[in-house]
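Summarise this fold before class:
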Amino acid sequence: MYGALMAGRPWMSDTEEPWFLEPAPEPQKQAVDMKHMKKKKEKQKHKHTHKGKHPEQRDGKDPASLQQCLGPGCVYPARPGSKYCSDDCGMKLAADRICKILPQRIKQWQNSPCVADEHGKKMLECIHCEQQATHTYLKEMECRLHELEAIILRGKQQTVCKGEENIEGDKNNTDLQISCVSCGKPISMRVAQRHMERCFAKYECRSTFGSLYPTSTEGATQLFCDVYDPESRTYCKRLQVLCPEHSQDAKVTNDEVCGCPLVHNVFELTGDFCRLPKRLCNRHYCWEKLRRAEVDLERVRALHKLDDLFEQEHKVRTAMINRAGLLPLMLHQTIQHDPLTTDLRSRVEREPCLT
């Protein structure tokens, strides 16, 4: 029977085995071979379709469905989600637009006066005047502080005179009592000022006023305490004269005179000084410290005003610089309908108010 089958297939040689006698291929090897062939075909198709494409567009979609790049002289399609095929094309187009549009906008800016710039110049003049006045006021406060030191020195040179009338007048008020503004305890009128100053200093020491940097202020005398605290790593920002935490009042001797300048009608100086012993004078307790603190507080207010003026000047100058910058000139344009009119302001803005 095998001979009859071989006789019916003359194309088969004697050495070849018949197809029905060959072993069947394994299914796993056949699946691997099919996947390998598919991958080779996909790689060949990918190389053939992307052979002449721009290098920036090989990862995109079909070039026929993309728009052409807007870059000057570029013939490649744009990237997905963009108008350009590359960043260089976008930069070239932006440079061409600036070279063509910017000179015209600069001429328009120079031909028509800017009202905002005129207002800005007037504001700068006012700010400069206020800055000069504030600097002059700071110098006056510095001179006033030196005059106060001279008055304190003259008061200390006075001779001590125990005035029995004044002391008796103070003793008559021992029966009157007043509540302390800090602790609320009832205290005698005779020692009220001393008690309130000391009580306030105790409560003031519980709070801290610090900054990370020391302060350098104008003037020969130091304004702030600026004592470094290693625990909080800050510098104390209380007034040096009034800081109860880092400064202590000097001890008063028995022979030290009060030396407070006496006044008439509250503000008029009489030229005389209080010659009572400083330990017994309750009317002028810590008057040197309070007078110095008054002058220092005026200096602090003047420095705060200078900071505000500096910020205003910075804002006005920044607005004036940005107003004539590249981006505003490219984005904004003033349309001049009448070529004969150069000033685009209204008549009310051009004519100054005479009233």
Q: What stands out?
A: Residues 60-111 form one domain. Confidence is low (pLDDT under 50) at residues 1-15, 47-61, 164-169. The CA atoms of residues 65 and 77 lie 9 Å apart. The first strand starts at residue 177 and ends at 179.
